[in-house]
Amino acid sequence: MIPKEMRWEITSKCNLKCKHCIVEHVKNEDLDLEANKTIVDKLKKNGVMEILFTSKEPFAYNGFLDLIRYCSINDIYVSIITNGTLIDDEAIKYLYRQKIKFIAISLDGWTSSSNDFIRGTGTFEKIVRTIEKLCLENKVQKNTYIPIYIQNLLTNQNTDEIDAMFELLDKYPDVQVSIGQITESGNASNHKECIVDQSKFRKAKQEIMTRNKQLRRRIFFKDESYFEGVWFNYLNGRSFKAEPPKCSIDENYYTLLPNGDMCKCIMLKDVEEKVAYEAVFGNILNENIYPNYNFDFDRSYKNVGRCKDCRVVKACNLCYIVSKSENKMDEQRALCDYYEKKINLEVDNLLKQNLRVNINKNVIVKNEKLFLQKDDHSIVPVDCCEKVATKLKEMMSLKDENIKLNELDYSFQTVEEMIYQNLIFKVE
Ligand SMILES: C[S@@+](CC[C@H](N)C(=O)[O-])C[C@H]1O[C@@H](n2cnc3c(N)ncnc32)[C@H](O)[C@@H]1O
Ligand code: SF4
Ligand code: SF4
Q1: Is 398 among the domain residues?
Q2: What is the pLDDT of residues 284-327, one digit of tens each?
Q3: How far is the CA of 276 from the centre of ligand 2 (A)?
Q4: Is the peptide bond before 393 cis (omega within 30 degrees of 0)?
């Protein structure tokens, strides 16, 4: 079965030589525009509705704008991750006439010294100029809006630039930010001086989240452990809910390489240990339909240590490479343990205090039943106990956003269930 969304590493070309580049080893021949249009036809025929274009640098691919146009006329939405240095004014105007879901622009520091240390001299200025032009275009355009992300990695060079970060973000209030950390792979293995240690990373993360509490900018951290995500959402005044980690090997998700080769994830090429899979399992140009490949990935981490009894073990699909490293798994489990204990203590406190909690605006009552509207606008029935349902309906009909937990005889599990189902929010 072909997925609805496809990740496409479109080219082996890039105009930069970043110190941390994870894909510097990708050396496949690029296909020409006609061959890639044939691939788009094939994807369209098989139901693909979205393509994410990424490495190396999509705008370095000869004919990239034409390819985007071809996707658009085929009703396929395009998202792009780019280094932002090759998008000229003409390209910007062109992009606004296509079906673009979002553009993520990498910026690995909040000053020219830290960013350029990783990405090369003069890149900070070029990247920020592109962000500025896109933000301006979003204002000028009457009928089209392209969501813009800054894709940032915390590095040894930029963790103390939090003032500079918020100063820059103040200028572009609509820009969303996703923050991650460098994986020690590809060129990053030769530049360990850029990689922050975990304690420094967490300190910076805590500071960013705390500073952002009032500002409520859309800042996301990538690759966090589930319970850590829950805790930081709570700290940020949102709900306790978080997305469990995902890995493309557990999903119906494929990556296309520049020569049309298909693999589950480009990163798997770097895994040296013996595993029962092939990183590349076919070439899209040679296949009529997707091969029903029998992947046999070892997910036995789920049967070890605290994972065995973890409430989200079914949904938790950690990065395969992380799951194969004993050290990294010890670290993950310790994090889950630490943050779950913090959460449980907090739920205990919620039960004892007269805390106000805000009802989630996405709860809908229809025919006496409760439904939750998810971010993708789908509506799912909520399965909670009768007592909670009655209280929620009552609160909603009175437009009362206060719930005094200690006055109602709720059990720990019931409150936890409400919190995890995103039914209640914390209010300061
Ligand atoms: C591989 S690049 C491809 C797209 C484009 N050339 C760019 O730099 O944005 C996609 C993203 O991966 C990030 N990246 C590169 N090397 C990485 C590493 N070792 N660990 C984590 N992220 C990395 C980049 O910073 C970028 O945001
Ligand atoms: S991270 Fe992106 S811009 Fe930097 S060298 Fe790699 S592919 Fe090029
Ligand atoms: S304890 Fe294990 S299964 Fe549960 S969230 Fe953490 S890593 Fe995933």
Answers
A1: yes
A2: 888 665 555 666 788 999 999 999 999 889 889 998 888 988 88
A3: 30
A4: no
